[in-house]
Amino acid sequence: MLTYSPCARDGNSNGEAAKLGCRVLTLADRLAKHSESTDGLTCTFMTPAHRATAAELLVLMVEAGMMVEEDVVGNVIGRYPAARHNAATLIIASHYDTVRNAGKYDGRLGILAGIVVVEELRRRNVSLPFHVDVVGFSEEEGVRFSTPFIGSAAMAGRFNEAVLNQRDAEGCSLGEALRQTGGDAASIAAIRRPSPLLGYVEVHIEQGPVLLHNGLPLGIVSAIAGLERYHVKIRGVAGHAGTVPMSLRHDAAAAAAEIIALVEQRCSSVPGLMGTVGQLQVPNGAINVIPALCELSLDVRAGEKHALAAAVADILTGIGAVARRRGVTVETEKLVETAPTPCSPRLQKALAAAVARQGVAVRHLVSGAGHDAIMFGGLTDIGMLFVRCGNGGVSHSPLETITAEDADLAVRALFDFLINFESG
Ligand SMILES: [Zn+2]
Predict the structure, then answer these.
(1) CA neighbor of 259 nearest in space, from 213, 310, 305, 297
(2) CA-based, 20 to 30 A from 22: which of 118, 213, 255, 333?
(3) 231, 209: one domain
């Protein structure tokens, strides 16, 4: 069971032991004061709360001695410069927007860890042979315009201009929202990406229970899972629940039950593979009628593309076998497919070494959730450090928690990673 450490912010000097972690938690509290709602934290793209959060981050970056700028989509960038002007750049980043009624650490932890590390670098007068750009991406969650990764896509040069016409619930388009805040959508394509890039590192809460379950504060992400999603429609034959013998039925819902079990069984066989049937309907079903139609969703994820493809192929073959045996027909429609994003072996190794030097056992894990790092995959080496979530691993909720000790270890590991990073 995780408990909150008393931090200096609570007027308790025991916080000294996890000073850097307490600093992160204090700053997360400070950012969380800017919210669209009076109770809880909601900070969506280009709202007044979002603008206030960006302004607060810029102040923190300036106070940490960084050179700062904000780009046209609201990304805030603070640079801790190398002595040599033309040095390469390492990005440390995550997002500062939130879901509705969010936790305080999703996204923000990664930005604040970067700022606190820079504060510590400056305090100890450490100069690095590369620039460190701490970036707060303006949008990752896709809440206001149903489009995720607006900030990181723009910086990575992967912004899709069609989404400028996407409208929020009030009918305001993304392009209009940018204009209202003084931005010019035409200059998105010119957003500067630091060059040459040494790599991209993102610290993020795990948003799941694996580290908590294993008693580990930190984990090294091996890959961000790719996924395939399907809509499955099963057609059987309706009949009277009392008159059709079991052996003569073609029950669409019973076929669905078997499919759910096969998804669970196939995906349990490989670590890092996940299969979920999150939607299941018997349209117009009745208590006394054998189901003639059943519809279900299928979501399969894995960190490795061959594992994903093999699982999906086996599941689709299995669905076909269930259909034949039961005399039902099945239509499957692919809704979405995204490839896994592997983390760079070089950065995984360097992060693992930094974690081990904190006396923490090294554990690699696949991220089942998407992160801004995906946008930089293929452009530069990416690496991610996960931090344990309390409360059963819950995220996207006010119940999301981390401890000061875990935040402290994350900052120390990041600091250690930077001072040992081979930039050549
Ligand atoms: Zn996040």
Answers:
(1) 297
(2) 213
(3) no
pTM of the model: 0.91
Q: What is the pLDDT of residues 347-376, one digit of tens each?
A: 999 999 999 999 999 999 999 999 999 999
Residues in the 5 Å CB sphere of ion ligand 1: 106-107
The CA 373 to ligand 1 mean position distance, Å, reads 10
Task: Report how far ligand 1's centroid is from the alpha carbon of 94 (Å).
Answer: 7
CB 407, CB 109: distance < 8 Å: yes
Q: Which domain holds residue 253?
A: 226-338
Centre of ligand 1 from the C-alpha of residue 41, in Å? 14
CB 404 within 8 A of CB 18: yes
pLDDT at residue number 12:
47
DSSP state of 336: E
Domain end call among 315, 338, 361: 338
User: How many Cβ atoms from other residues are within 10 Å of residue 89's Cβ?
Assistant: 21
C-alpha of residue 117 to centroid of ligand 1, in Å? 20
Q: In the chain, what are the helix, strand and coil shares in percent, each to the nearest 5?
A: 40, 25, 40
Domain for residue 385, yes or no? Answer: yes
The CA distances from residue 233 to 253, 306, 317, 395, in Å, are: 10, 26, 15, 32
Question: pLDDT tens digit string along 18-54?
Answer: 999 999 999 999 999 999 998 899 999 999 999 999 9
Report the separation in Å between the CA atom of 295 and the middle of ligand 1, taken as the mean of its atom positions.
31
Compute how many other C-beta atoms are within 10 angstroms of the C-beta atom of residue 238.
17
**What separation in Å is there between the alpha carbon of 3 and the centre of ligand 1?**
23
Whether residue 87 is found in the same domain as residue 174? yes
